Amino acid sequence: MGNSTAPRTVSGIGVLDKSVLVLHAVSAAPCNLAELCDATALPRATAHRLAVGLEAHRLIARDTTGRWMPGPALRELSGSHVDRIPDAAVTILPRLREITGESVQIYRRDGAERICVAALEPPSGLRDTVPVGTRLPMTAGSAAKVLLAWAPDGVRTPLLDDSVFAERTLAEVRKKGWAQSVAERAAGVASISAPIRDGDGEVVAAISVSGPIERIGRRPGARWAADLLAAADALEERLGHAPD
């Protein structure tokens, strides 16, 4: 078996504990069957049976590459408000990853932090892995710049005191419509991000491409801005046609 990274909480109900292992594994990163077995240390037949069962209940779902990822029922069960962005991203992020060959993510602002609500990694090679649910500061990185650039003054001003960028940087982000960063959030990582708007034109999230500087370069915007903005537009289009 591979190295399991999922938590090993034991309730005494074997099938429940194993199902929770599967849920944690696919929440950390989309998994095919081999990756799921490696992440959970479950036998192949058991992992497959549980994954298929959880998929039938919509607790997990498959992305366009066939990997399992968190399903819509998890968000529906979390409350009456359903975040439609992760569902819409299922059809948008794979294409953006294919175009860029890099890691792609979507972030929402949550107070003084940003949280990753959707992510896909390239199938091989060095990557910038940000699992779904990861919380990152709003003080560095291209996604933080995008989310702060259109945030209310009462949110933006206090966070700028501790940020590696200044208000003039955010003004430039608003002018260009996208942001980039080089070794801000993590050494050796560059990224580019663009805003995602709701039906009222409000910025509700940021879509990002990130990867090693040695591969993505120090001017990722020159390479990927047009493709990223197109992905943001496509995502907004899907959100606009999604049922309430």
From TrEMBL:
It comes from the Bacteria. InterPro entries: GAF-like_dom_sf, HTH_MetabolicPath_Reg, Tscrpt_reg_IclR_C, Tscrpt_reg_IclR_N, WH-like_DNA-bd_sf, WH_DNA-bd_sf. The keyword Transcription regulation applies. Residues 73-241 form the IclR-ED domain. GO terms for molecular function: DNA binding; DNA-binding transcription factor activity. GO terms for biological process: negative regulation of DNA-templated transcription. SUPFAM superfamilies: GAF domain-like, Winged helix' DNA-binding domain. The keyword DNA-binding applies. Keywords: DNA-binding, Transcription, Transcription regulation. PROSITE patterns: HTH_ICLR, ICLR_ED. This is IclR family transcriptional regulator.
